[in-house]
């Protein structure tokens, strides 16, 4: 009995070459399956992450611009910019302090700036927030000063707007709170830029008038030295500016990364009935009808092109349709093929300028 058990045990001490090859083949098959599952899972993760990046960038950019466009051309209790007198020295139509245009949209064609050529630029002017101070005493109409509740909040060179809800005047501060007298002086001359063309207001503002800070903001797509494109905000230095120069803008502030392009359409009210009659491309700043078209614009349609942060999201270049209002079938109708395998998506929205609705007439 022991001899028989020993012979059986001896026959089970090793594997034959055939058995070893079969086991190795099965192991390789299992390993190949696991590698395939890992690669597919990794690609799925990269695609999901890229889609999340694109959605985050597109939605954030759309949310910021939609809110800003709704609030464009806001001048406090004055319904339209046409009621505002600008006492600043006149500049060209492209001046950042051209407050006659509460909204300005154009195509960038300047190859010397950081803005992506061919992308659209949105400029908005108006006042933000509540009034800073109120007028405390009634000055003479031709006076070069306002007596306000607190002049210490202003500096030489600040650009301000005073309004009583019937009229408004924009001016630049030449002196403020000298000797603690709560006077804001708006005289001509001095070292401010652009300076005041006239010192007198168009009316004698009473003590119910409020003083606001007008502002200009510019949204554009700019490219940094590394080639990354972003939605960028620039703001005019109408307050706390260096040397009293309010005709320049501050440093660009990146709002949303990987926004590759921005395009717009203007909803224009051509018959002054308070409704959009035609959608059209923005005019060039030098067009004869540019000011009229922009003043008649009630809504703005914006399309943002967002891209994933990683290059190799897709297996190859995947065509995309941009701007979002196009019905793309081929390259002739707007279908574009990128130079990389990143993920591209167009985010399109329409925003109505609420300060222009119901204020016609």
Automatic annotation (TrEMBL):
Write the record's keywords in alphabetical order, separated by commas.
Membrane, Transmembrane, Transmembrane helix
Residue stretches spanning the membrane: 20-39
Any Pfam family the entry gives: N_methyl
- Which biological process terms from the Gene Ontology are attached to this UniProt entry? type IV pilus assembly
Q: Which InterPro entries match?
A: N_methyl_site, PilW
Q: What is this protein called?
A: Type IV pilus assembly protein PilW
What organism is this sequence from?
Marinobacter mobilis
